[in-house]
Specification:
Elements lengths: L4 E4 L12 H8 L7 E4 L8 H9 L5 E5 L4 H7 L2 H20 L4 E4 L11 H18 L2 E5 L8 H11 L4 E5 H6 L3 H5 L2 H5 L1 E6 L25 H10 L5 E4 L12 H14 L17
Helix pairs in contact: 3-4, 3-5, 4-5, 5-6
Length: 286
């Protein structure tokens, strides 16, 4: 199976201070990836027509849209008003995906601060989310994200039983946080429904000594990312590897050299037999 090595725009953007649409496009033009997952930020909603136009006219190879992270927490509340707000936000991101010609949208179905403590509310909303995506002709890839009461794979099992239409986005770091990465790699049924694998490394520490979020680059942690790439290549479905490790410095500047180095490292994990047919020239022109 041919593997595309893509890059999340979250690798070189950050809410709320590095979210300018034109700046994201300018940075992406300097990144050597097979395609890009556009991470949706609230700032895009300030002028959705303008931001959508900037992204759609860029000529960049968009491969997926990561829906806004406010959707899951709104669904967790269980109120009808919050569900309507969540679905309205989801619709906005699905419109963006449609405008970009993207067929996959990543969804955090649950999220902080409650995580999965109120998961029954999220479970009750999943079919509505899938219905909305179907109306836009977009496939939702529900992502494995941290849990406080269960584990990511247990929550995916509940979702699959609730609605067999569910498809997945796996996150290497979040699965490793719960000691579930190896289980996920060995689960052929899970992989059959997987669209994207978000790649970050992990060394056992999620935050630093000051409590700030850490993002390890491929090769900096203890994860067997070669096994991740091998599992994707061996799958019967087409799975993209998507770099998520952040290269935004504390001052808001972006280390694009690190982004490209991370992508080179990630490509090095991909089995040679899976890369036939992947263009050697991925970087868009100016």
């Amino acid at each position: 199976m041919i593997i595309a090595v893509t890059c999340s725009t979250g690798a070189f953007s950050r809410d709320p201070d590095v979210v300018d649409a034109a700046g994201i496009v300018a940075a992406a033009r300097r990144v050597d990836a097979d395609g890009f997952e556009l991470l949706s930020y609230p700032a895009f909603a300030d002028d959705p027509k303008d931001s959508t136009s900037i992204f759609s006219r860029s000529g960049l190879p968009w491969t997926s849209v990561h829906a806004g992270k406010a959707i899951g927490p709104l669904l967790s509340s269980g109120t009808a008003d919050d569900r309507r707000r969540a679905l309205a936000l989801l619709d906005a991101d699905l419109r963006l995906a449609t405008a970009l010609g993207v067929e996959i949208a990543v969804l955090h179905l649950w999220g902080m601060p409650d995580s999965d403590r109120r998961f029954p509310s999220n479970l009750a909303a999943v079919s509505d989310c899938l219905d909305h995506a179907e109306r836009f002709g977009v496939t939702l890839g529900i992502e494995t994200i941290p849990c406080l009461e269960a584990t990511p794979l247990a929550r995916l099992s509940e979702l699959q039983r609730r609605d067999p239409r569910c498809r997945w986005t796996l996150d290497t770091e979040f699965l490793a946080l719960h000691d579930e990465l190896d289980l996920a790699l060995a689960d052929a049924d899970l992989f059959a429904g997987t669209k994207i694998i978000h790649v970050k490394d992990y060394d056992g520490e999620f935050v630093d000594r000051q409590g700030r979020r850490r993002y390890l680059h491929p090769g900096q942690g203890r994860l067997d990312l070669a096994a991740v790439a091998e599992a994707a290549a061996s799958s019967s479905s087409s799975i993209r590897l998507c770099l998520e490790s952040s290269s935004v410095r504390p001052d808001g500047s972006i280390d694009l050299g690190q982004v490209n180095a991370d992508l080179d490292t990630l490509r090095g994990f991909v089995p040679l037999t899976s890369t036939a047919g992947v263009s050697a020239s991925r970087r868009p022109g100016p």
